[in-house]
Structure formats: structure tokens, C-alpha cells
């Protein structure tokens, strides 16, 4: 398992509010893999994101179900703050920006 493979798996998780995956939205800041433990540093579009808890839960369950990963720790940060500029070109096009 590599961090690139983890990133590919994370790109299947959709933010229900924006209907774009969390990788293309730019919510994933860093992925670290040490033995069988994955640490993901990420943010949410806003502190009051109504889907924040469910997105974090889905990430943990999805990553911990991968072969070779026994634990997924989420480091939810607010600095640097998420902005629309963190989205990929694909995400911006999908949202008509």
C-alpha cells in the first residue's frame, strides 16, 4: 500500500454538499503511511460543515478496510484554511467555476 493508492481510494469519497470527491476538492493536505497505520491531515470547507463528521467516519472505515492498513488517524486542521483555490481544475469545472 502506498500513499498514492490511499489517495486514489480517498478520491472515491464524495462530499455530499458539493458532490465532488474530497481529493479534488482539496480537502486532503497530507497522507502518511507508517507500517500499517495511516495518518491523514485534512480540513473541511467550513468549520460548520454539516457533513464533516460523516466524511471523517467514512474515511476511517474506508481506509481501515484496505489490506495492509490496521488504523487510520485523521488530523482535522483549520490552518491553512480551505479556499476554492485548493480545488483541482476538474472540481472547478464540475462546479461551473
UniProtKB/TrEMBL annotation:
Domain MIP18 family-like: 5-74
Domain of life: Bacteria
The name this protein goes by in its record: MIP18 family-like domain-containing protein
